[in-house]
Design a protein that fits this description.
Elements (H helix, E strand, L loop, with lengths): L1 H9 L8 H4 L19 H17 L3 H17 L3 H14 L4 H13 L3 H14 L4 H18 L2 H17 L4 H13 L3 H14 L6 H10 L9 H8 L1
Helix pairs in contact: 4-5, 5-6, 6-7, 6-8, 7-8, 8-9, 8-10, 9-10, 10-11
C-alpha cells in the first residue's frame, strides 16, 4: 500500500477542469492524448526517464504501474476532473504503449470533447490490440455514427455497422451496441429492423436510449409493439 501511495503522490496533477471548461481553453500537451503527439524537449524527456525509473522501483513491472495509473485516471474522470484523468492516462500510456485501455480512454475523452475523428484514431489503436472487445467496438462504432451524421459518408455508416455486428456477435447482451444498430438501420431506412434492435436494447438496459431518436423513428414508422406510444413518451418526459 505504501508504495502505491508514494507513486500516486509523486505524480499528482493539479489540473481539475471539466470537459466543458476544457473546450473554451487551449489545452496543455500533458492533458492531450499521448501528450499531444508532440516532440518533447530534452528536459521533458529527462522527466519521463525519472518517472519511469521511479515506477520501476515501486511496482513489480511497468504493466502493473500502467494499470495503477489507469485506475486513478478512471477515478478522476468519474469525478469530472477530465484534465487530471487524461494526464493519468498519459502516464499509463508512457509506461505501457501496448495497454489497449489507454487508447480506449483517449477515445472516450476525445469523443466527449466533440472531436469524433480523432476519437476514432484512438479507438482504432485500441482495436489493433483487442479487435474482438465488444464494448470497445460499440464505442468506436458510436463515433463512426457521429461522423456519418455530420458528413453523410456511407463508408462511416458501413464501418459502424460492421463493428456493431462483431460486437453483438461477441456479446449478444451489449445493449449499447444493439441500440446503435437500431440507429444504423434507421439511417439505412430499414425502420422495422430499427424497432427490433431498439426493443432488444431496451429490454436489456433503458438508460442509453435517446428519446429524441425515438421521436424520429416514430415519425418514420409507429412502434410495432406499441411500447413507445404517445402516452409512454409523455410519461418518460415527466
Amino acid at each position: 500500500m505504501k508504495r502505491l501511495l508514494l507513486a500516486a503522490a509523486a505524480f499528482l496533477c493539479a489540473t481539475t477542469l471539466s470537459l466543458a471548461q476544457e473546450q473554451t481553453a487551449e489545452l496543455s500537451p500533458k492533458v492531450l492524448p499521448m501528450f499531444g503527439g508532440k516532440q518533447k524537449t530534452e528536459a521533458e524527456q529527462k522527466q519521463d526517464e525519472k518517472f519511469l525509473t521511479s515506477c520501476d522501483k515501486n511496482f513489480t513491472d511497468r504493466q502493473e504501474a500502467s494499470k495503477f495509473f489507469m485506475e486513478r485516471g478512471w477515478e478522476y474522470l468519474n469525478e469530472g476532473q477530465a484534465d487530471t484523468a487524461v494526464y493519468r492516462f498519459n502516464l499509463a500510456w508512457l509506461l505501457n504503449p501496448d495497454n489497449k485501455d489507454t487508447y480506449w480512454a483517449f477515445g472516450l475523452v476525445t469523443s466527449a470533447r466533440g472531436d469524433q475523428e480523432h476519437a476514432i484514431e484512438m479507438y482504432e489503436k485500441a482495436l489493433a490490440l483487442a479487435p474482438k472487445n465488444s464494448l470497445l467496438l460499440s464505442d468506436a462504432a458510436s463515433s463512426y455514427l457521429a461522423v456519418y451524421k455530420e458528413k453523410k459518408k456511407k463508408k462511416n455508416l458501413k464501418k459502424a455497422a460492421s463493428y456493431l455486428s462483431t460486437a453483438t456477435a461477441s456479446d449478444p447482451t451489449n445493449a449499447f451496441a444493439l441500440y446503435n444498430l437500431s440507429v444504423v438501420k434507421f439511417h439505412e431506412k430499414k425502420y422495422s429492423e430499427a424497432w427490433d434492435y431498439l426493443h432488444k436494447s431496451r429490454n436489456l438496459n433503458m438508460t442509453q436510449i435517446d428519446y429524441s431518436y425515438i421521436m424520429e423513428l416514430v415519425d418514420k414508422m409507429p412502434d410495432p409493439q406499441g411500447f413507445f406510444n404517445a402516452t409512454n413518451q409523455d410519461s418518460a418526459s415527466n
